[in-house]
Design a protein that fits this description.
2 strands; two-stranded antiparallel sheet
Length: 218
């Protein structure tokens, strides 16, 4: 990582330093962990849908996936702080729901969620948070894979929730999701780091506005 670089932003000059770049590297590492875990879990779920040992392994992969996603959401650069917090809340709801279900059910988590679609009202928030990342990346960097993932993920989850998708369609969408997620994570590894940080002058401007609004309200 090079020394601090000065850029001209929308609201003035700003610097990108080593700590900024490190946060991007951590963000991308979290995405890669999540993508790898999701890809392996998808393969195992489709290949060995009735093997209890495999399904229990998927629970571990899901937990690691959530950790990777949490790391990414802690280090992602999003201009709108409320949106950033909302995605973190979504992940929290999904993670807590998963823990509660996992502790109460005698079945492996993946099998229980699959057989009880209403659990997606809790667990599904995990993937809503992930979809938020896809949407952000699609809007900021015009990424085809994340533009495709943004509708695919809710379509699959809602389709399963309402029982309107045949098994083969669900498996196909899940496979496409896993492949595109990995494509996204790999492409992030080779993308220039500084653009991922964004225009820090915008962050500073929004922060100053927030402080000004607080002062006016007191």
């Amino acid at each position: 990582m090079s020394e601090a670089t000065v850029y001209q932003g929308q609201f003035g000059e700003f610097r990108i330093d080593k700590s900024d770049r490190l946060s991007v590297i951590i963000y991308r590492a979290g995405l890669m962990v999540a993508a790898v875990c999701f890809g392996i879990a998808t393969f195992l779920a489709i290949k060995f849908p009735t093997d209890t040992t495999v399904l229990n392994a998927i629970t571990f992969l899901y937990a690691t996936f959530c950790i990777g996603l949490a790391v990414s959401l802690a280090t992602i650069h999003i201009y709108l702080a409320p949106l950033h917090r909302l995605l973190q809340v979504f992940l929290g709801i999904g993670a807590v729901s998963s823990v509660v279900i996992g502790l109460q059910s005698s079945e492996p988590l993946a099998l229980y969620v699959y057989n009880h679609p209403l659990t997606l009202f809790g667990v599904g928030f995990t993937f809503a948070a992930l979809t938020g990342i896809y949407f952000k990346e699609g809007m900021c960097f015009n990424r085809l894979e994340t533009k495709l993932l943004t509708p695919i993920v809710p379509a699959l989850l809602l389709g399963h929730l309402f029982g309107v998708l045949p098994l083969v369609v669900e498996q196909t969408l899940l496979s496409i999701w896993a492949i595109l997620f990995m494509v996204f994570a790999v492409r992030k590894l080779v993308q220039a780091i500084d653009p991922d940080i964004g225009d820090k002058s915008v962050f500073a401007y929004l922060k100053a506005q927030k402080k000004g609004n607080k002062l006016q309200s007191t």
